[in-house]
Predict the structure.
Amino acid sequence: MYGLEAISNNNGWIISGAGILIVFACLASLSFAVSQIKVIFILFDRSNRFYKKIKSRDSKKKIPEAGTAAFYELLKSELEEPFQLFELLEILDKNNFPHPYLTVNQLRYGKTIIPSGDGCFIFKRNEV
Amino acid sequence: MDDLLMKFFSNTGYALVDYRNLIMIFIAFIFIYLAIVKKCEPLLLVPIGFGILLGNVPVFQGFGLGLYEDGSVLHFLYFGVTTGMYPSLVFLGLGAMTDFSSLLRKPVLMLLGAAAQVGIFFTLLGALFFGFGPQEAASIAIIGGADGPTSIFLTARLAPHLIGPVAIAAYSYMALIPIIQPPIMKLLTTHKERLIRMDGLREVSKRGKIVFPIIALLLCCFTAPASLPLLGMFFLGNLLKESTVTERLANTARTSIIDIATILLGVIVGASTQGDKFLTHKSLGIFILGATAFSIATASGIIFAKIMNLFMEQKINPLLGAAGVSAVPGSAREVHLLAIKEDNTNFLLMHAIACNSSGVIGSAISAGVLWTFLS
């Protein structure tokens, strides 16, 4: 079979039309999605920043600057140097300190406690 | 003794050779000459050319030597072609080589990759018009995508008896891009249009590059699931590359895996062109329609870019439409060279590569669509 009749009998017109539409739809939607990726990332970053802000506000609330010295004194009086982190956690827990793990992290990153080299920690005295 | 010698002689290639084998051996010489002397797509043409030699050494049937004989080594390797395994592996390597940065920087160029696929569907109509069956017509039409592995993949599914001519036509036209595309580009664009400069490309984050293959896979394969074997591997390869935590795997995909798949694909496709199966009227028709498909694909990309310019504030250089076919990076290079010829400060390469990359995706989707409709 030849000619236009062959095209019609084999659904050529429909396949071609639908094929072109599908390819265009796929790539147009992909193009749109790609152009919006940046927006999605911005939203994601904003929500991340917002979450971090709330978290840091919470921790600030629990360990106010004014109480740092008292907090330090409490730890120093109860801990024998060098000490292990679990001992520090126990004391924080015992004194009902909020977010003990976060506090330990802050003490470490703030270099209030420093490693003594054998898996234990000591206080860095000139920090206070 | 005489009988034994006569029997041996009657089983040698000298006694079994057919004039069609000799023609194919001559074609193999041309391929190997073009690859080695003219440096024309050597990575493809050397394995294919040598494969043609392999396939046209006459062997007697029943000895388990021929490509089409069950149990032969070549038949075993042919399995990778008929199942679509080699094209999928090639796509894995391609994905690990492809940098989508330029496409992500200007996503609107993706539409040019879609427009160039129009050539495939127009040629489908042409092939049906000239009396090819629907499956054969689809296999011929996909040549317009200018993507060898995709053409082989679809033909293996729909019309395996045409793998030889379709593959040879697809790879030949890819090698002939510098001859086929520039006249069409010049014919369809004015000097003023060819001078259009493209604006700078925006920054792309690393996160964007990582997320793209995942989004693209889901969007494309939910719409055209039959393109999964190609696009799945393509985007996997790209994710391996962009994630940077699987550098070793990405490196294997873009070196060892793609090289092995290319060698096997080339040799076996070449070997499938045995004279008596290849030199037919149908093959001639396939070559003519394949060239038409490729030309229409080039033209439709350019025309669509011109149509887009009617609506867009920031004009697109219509030459980029020609790079919408998936012949990476040949067509992008031609677009760039032509633009440079008109104005030696107008660099279009990165934009053209973007169109090329979307062409690869577009032709794989087209193959999936045709397979779904005609299986």
The first helix of chain B runs from residue 2 to 10. Chain B touches chain A at residues 103-104, 107-108, 110-111, 113-115, 117-118, 120-122, 124-125, 128-131, 133-134, 137, 205, 207-208, 211-212, 215-216, 219-220, 223-224, 358, 361-362, 365-366, 369-370, 373-374 (CB under 8 Å). DSSP finds 21 helices and no strands in chain B.
